[in-house]
Write a structure and sequence with these properties.
Largest sheet: 2 strands, antiparallel
Radius of gyration: 19 Å
Distance between the termini: 54 Å
Number of helices: 11
Shape: globular
Strand order of the largest sheet: 1-2
Order of helices and strands: HHHHEEHHHHHHH
Number of strands: 2
Mean pLDDT: 83
Low-confidence stretches: none
Structural class: mainly alpha
Length: 292
C-alpha cells in the first residue's frame, strides 16, 4: 500500500511538471495556432541562464524572475524574427522552423554552457513530508510545483475566457483577416502569445531542473510526455493540459514502479494510441463541426 501511495504522489509531481509544459503548448496553440516543438529547448536555455546567475550568488527569487523575463523576451524575439516572416505561407513551415530551433538551441547551449551535467538548487526542501512516524514521497518543493502549475493553469484559463486580450489572441490565431478588419493588431497579439507561452515553458524548466542533473537535452523526454498530456487533454484546453499531465504522470509512475522504468515511454505511447483512437480531439476539446 505504501508503494502505491508513493507512486501516486510521485506521479502527481511529475504530472504537474508535464502539465506546465503542456500549458505552454496549449497557450501557443490557442494564441497562434502553431505547435511549438522548441518549447522544451527554450525552457532549457532559460534554465541555463538562471543557473549562470545563481553561480554569481544573485538572490534565488531574483534569478527565478529573471529566467521568466528571459523566456518572455526570447519568445517575442523568436516570433518576430523566425515566425512572422512565414505568415501566409504553408502551415507546415512554422512547425519545421520550431524543429530547427530545437536543434539550434541545444547546440548553442552545449557550446556556451558545456554539455556536462549541472545541478540546480530547489526553492524549498525536497525532503519527504513526515506525518507521525511515516514519511511520504512528497516534499515542500512538490507542494510549490503543485501550487505554481495550478496558478499558471488558472491564469491561462482566465486570460482566454474572461479578458478581451484572450479573445483577441484566439481571433488572431484562427481568423487573422477578420480580426485585422475589426481593429486587432494581429502581429503584436501573436508576438505576445509566443512571449507568454515561453514564460510558461521557462517556469516548467525551473520546476524540473532541481529534480534532475540537467544538460542541454534534459527537457527532451519531458517535452514528449508534455505533448502526450496536451493531446490527452486537448490542445485548446488549459484544464485539459492539467488533467492530461496528471493522467500521464500517474500512468508513467505506475508503469515505472510496477513494470520497470524502461517501459515508461511505451506507456506514453499506449496512452496516445488509446486517446487518439477514442477521442482524437482530446478529452476536454469540443469536436470540430463537419460540413456536409
Amino acid at each position: 500500500m505504501s508503494l502505491f501511495i508513493n507512486l501516486t504522489l510521485n506521479g502527481i509531481t511529475n504530472g504537474m511538471i508535464f502539465a506546465a509544459v503542456a500549458l505552454g503548448l496549449v497557450f501557443i496553440w490557442r494564441a497562434t495556432h502553431i505547435v511549438n516543438f522548441s518549447q522544451g529547448s527554450m525552457a532549457m536555455f532559460t534554465t541555463y541562464i538562471a543557473v549562470t546567475l545563481l553561480d554569481r550568488h544573485i538572490n534565488y527569487w531574483l534569478v527565478f524572475a529573471a529566467a521568466l523575463v528571459a523566456g518572455l523576451v526570447m519568445g517575442g524575439v523568436i516570433e518576430v524574427v523566425l515566425i512572422r516572416p512565414l505568415r501566409g505561407k504553408h502551415a507546415l513551415n512554422p512547425v519545421i522552423v520550431t524543429l530547427g530551433l530545437f536543434i539550434l538551441l541545444e547546440g548553442l547551449a552545449g557550446s556556451i554552457f558545456g554539455v556536462g551535467n549541472r545541478s540546480f538548487p530547489p526553492a524549498f526542501s525536497q525532503a519527504g513530508l513526515t506525518f507521525g512516524h511515516s514519511t511520504i514521497a512528497f516534499s515542500h518543493f512538490d507542494l510549490f510545483i503543485l501550487a505554481a502549475v495550478v496558478i499558471l493553469m488558472l491564469g491561462t484559463l482566465v486570460l482566454f475566457r474572461a479578458t478581451n486580450m484572450g479573445l483577441r489572441m484566439r481571433a488572431a490565431a484562427f481568423a487573422p483577416e477578420v480580426a485585422r478588419l475589426l481593429g486587432v493588431r494581429v502581429g503584436r497579439i501573436l508576438t505576445l502569445g509566443w512571449a507568454l507561452a515561453a514564460v510558461a515553458g521557462s517556469l516548467a524548466g525551473l520546476l524540473v531542473a532541481p529534480t534532475v542533473s540537467f544538460s542541454p537535452n534534459f527537457m527532451d523526454l519531458i517535452l514528449v510526455y508534455a505533448f502526450t498530456a496536451a493531446v490527452v487533454g486537448g490542445l485548446d484546453s488549459p484544464v485539459g493540459a492539467l488533467v492530461g499531465g496528471l493522467v500521464t504522470g500517474l500512468s508513467l509512475s505506475y508503469v515505472g514502479g510496477y513494470l520497470g522504468s524502461s517501459l515508461e515511454p511505451l506507456g506514453a505511447l499506449a496512452i496516445l494510441m488509446v486517446v487518439l483512437s477514442a477521442r482524437p480531439e482530446g478529452i476536454f476539446s469540443r469536436p470540430a463541426p463537419r460540413r456536409v
